[in-house]
Amino acid sequence: MLLIKGGRVIDPGTGRDETGHLVIEGGKVREFLTGGPPEGFSGKIIHAEGKWVVPGLIDMHVHLRDPGFEWKEDIRTGTMAAAAGGFTSVVCMANTKPANDHPEITRYILEKARGEGSCNVFPVAALSRNLDGKEMTDFCELFEAGAVAFSDDGKPVENPLLMRRALEYARPFGFLILVHSEDHQLAEEGAANEGWTAQKLGIPGIPAAAEDVAIARDILLARQTGGRVHLQHISTRMGVDLLRMAKRAGLNVTGETAPHYFTLTDAALEGYDTNAKMNPPLRGEDDRMAILEGIIDGTIDAVASDHAPHEEYVKRCEFTAAANGIIGLQTSLPLTLGLLAGGKVSPARIVDLLSCAPARILSLAGKGTLSPGADADVTVIDPEEEWEHRADDVLSKSKNSPFFGWKFQGRAVVTLCGGRVRYAAQTGVVADV
Ligand SMILES: [Zn+2]
């Protein structure tokens, strides 16, 4: 048995926000208790006084790079970084090599995660074979092997007919399609948000419309087919507006953003920092405000890191040639906790964005809740601790982050998966009785 003692238990699924003890047994949540710890308790105790105790965080957009790019990241190091960032589950994208377009690859990921992983791994399978946007994969076979959704993320599905067919195939099974919204023709060879900063720095721009047109198309196809669409890494004002409209129309459309889109703007490109280069690109201040509004009013369902590890070689080069993306597993929670400062986002909303909503969207049974019988995936968060992020803290193989030297308030101190401690920030937090 394990007791998480005296923490503020925040569980939006059951509406609980109350100080007490959480009892864990057999890898499951047994009960929530107030008052004294249970009589005659013996086992491990996690001291959570002054901390938040929340359903294990779920990052629904991660690139683990395994198989095929293990020098950037692998399942062992990616899940270590996840656990250190407070995540008990990660959802990994299919743009590996080979791509996760075959049940053998899905099974490889799951087996390696079971053997070497520090948290749960839920694979997303490719929507098209080899992510080439031509021939659809066999969704049912991939689902049987353990895929939780389908996506060509990293690339858009350029052919609208293929997207239509994918949504039609997915619909009767309730399968979810995750979409990377980008019109390649409109994006051209752009490397930064089209606007003043890109112009000043002489970097070719990507207009917001390259994202917005793609979002609009897939919302219309969700309407046409009744299929379920989840918009990945929304970065524009119009993207948020379109999602809001789709929800008002009762369509099966959800959306996520990444912490960098509500934290940074393209001003971060000054000095040609390639760690500010991602796809979609960092946008302007008006877009950043719109993302915040979308989080506050509930239009945006989830926050996901889009953890995209890259070795130094492909980042330390000329801006337009540099690879897209940043790591994010260890900064996603602290950056999202930063939303508390504005006073418009509650602790419960943060837990919903980072745990409950991903579990709901992906239908992950037993996740995103602390109700009795749920999996004992629990994150203990110290909301007060002030700390500075250093490259030495990073457990990923790659260190491409624009957030080194940043001062944060709040971080995960214990991460528990299936009742097992997979990360503890300090010794002494977990004790035997
Ligand atoms: Zn993407």
Describe the structure.
The chain has 433 residues and is an alpha/beta fold. It is built from 13 helices and 19 strands. The strands form four sheets. Strands 1, 2, 3, 4, 5, 16, 17, 18 and 19 form a nine-stranded mixed beta sheet that branches. Strands 6-7-8-9 form a four-stranded parallel beta sheet. It has a four-stranded parallel beta sheet with strand order 10-13-14-15. Helix 7 packs parallel to helix 8 and helix 8 runs parallel beside helix 10. The structure holds zinc ion. Zinc ion (ZN) binds next to loops.
First and last CA, distance: 10 Å
Percentage of residues in DSSP E strands: 15-25%
Q: Measured on Cα atoms, how large is the radius of gyration?
A: 21 Å
Approximate helicity band? 25-40%
Number of helices: 13
Q: Could you say which overall geometry the principal axes of the C-alpha atoms support?
A: globular
- How many strands, what sense, and barrel or not for the largest sheet? 9 strands, mixed
Regions with pLDDT < 50 over 5+ consecutive residues? none
What structural category characterises the helix and strand content? Answer: alpha/beta
Multimerization status = single chain
